[in-house]
Design brief:
CATH class: Alpha Beta
Strand order of the largest sheet: 3-6-7-8-9
Shape: globular
CATH superfamily: CoaB-like
Low-confidence stretches: none
Number of strands: 9
Order of helices and strands: HEEHEEEHEHEEEH
Helix content: 25-40%
Structural class: alpha/beta
Number of domains: 1
Distance between the termini: 31 Å
CATH architecture: 3-Layer(aba) Sandwich
C-alpha cells in the first residue's frame, strides 16, 4: 500500500459514525490511530488480503449499502519477491513492476445498487485535468461521486479537495469536515 496517514479516512469514518451510520472500516497501515469508539475495524497489512476481506463483505448477505473507496493501494507491485538476502555492494538494481489489482475495480460487480464514492489523487494536473480524471473514474467504476485532490493540496492548501458528481458538477471542499459532510449527504440521498 502507499504511505498514508489515514487522517482523511478516519475523519470521514468518525463523522459518519457520529451521524448515526453503521461504519465498518477495512484498512491497511496508517500513522494516525482510529478513534477509540470505532470498533468495527478490520486491519490487513497486505493489499491482497485487504481485497479478499472487501470481497467477502461485498458478497455477504449483509453487504453494505454504501462504499467509500479511499484506501491508498499501490498501482504497481513487484512481480516476484526474493526469498534470499541480496548482497550489498550491487551498484545497479532492476526491479520489474506489474499493475496491482485495483480494489475499486474488483468490487464493482459486487456493489450493484450501493452508493459508491471514490477518491482520485493526481499530481502536476491543473484543475480541469483533475476534474476530467475524476469524471473518467466516475464512469469507469459506476460511482456516485469522487473526491478529487491534487497531491500538492494535501499539505494545507485550500481548497482541500473537490467533489465531482455524476452530473459533472464540481464543489470545492475546504477541509476534511466539508469532505465528510458531502459524502454523508450523498449516502443519505439514496
Amino acid at each position: 500500500q502507499n504511505t498514508s496517514s489515514g487522517k482523511t479516512g478516519w475523519a470521514v469514518s468518525e463523522y459518519l459514525y457520529r451521524m448515526g451510520h453503521d461504519v465498518k472500516v477495512v484498512h491497511g497501515e496508517t500513522t494516525v490511530s482510529p478513534p477509540t469508539f470505532l470498533t468495527n475495524n478490520i486491519y490487513r497489512s497486505d493489499p491482497v488480503e485487504m481485497l479478499d476481506s472487501l470481497l467477502t463483505i461485498a458478497k455477504s448477505q449483509n453487504a453494505p449499502d454504501s462504499w467509500i473507496h479511499c484506501a491508498a493501494v499501490l498501482d504497481y507491485v513487484t512481480n516476484e519477491v526474493s526469498n534470499e538476502k541480496v548482497k550489498s555492494g550491487n551498484k545497479n538494481w532492476s526491479i520489474n513492476l506489474v499493475p496491482s489489482k485495483k480494489h475499486i475495480e474488483e468490487l464493482t460487480n459486487y456493489c450493484e445498487g450501493a452508493t459508491r464514492i471514490g477518491f482520485k489523487l493526481e499530481s502536476n494536473y491543473d484543475d480541469a485535468q483533475l476534474f476530467a480524471s475524476a469524471s473518467e473514474m466516475l464512469d469507469k467504476y459506476q460511482l456516485d461521486g469522487v473526491i478529487a485532490n491534487h497531491l500538492e493540496s494535501l499539505n494545507d492548501r485550500v481548497p482541500r479537495a473537490f467533489w465531482v458528481d455524476k452530473k459533472g458538477e464540481v464543489t470545492p471542499l475546504q477541509d476534511n469536515l466539508a469532505l465528510a459532510m458531502i459524502i454523508e449527504k450523498e449516502i443519505c440521498r439514496t
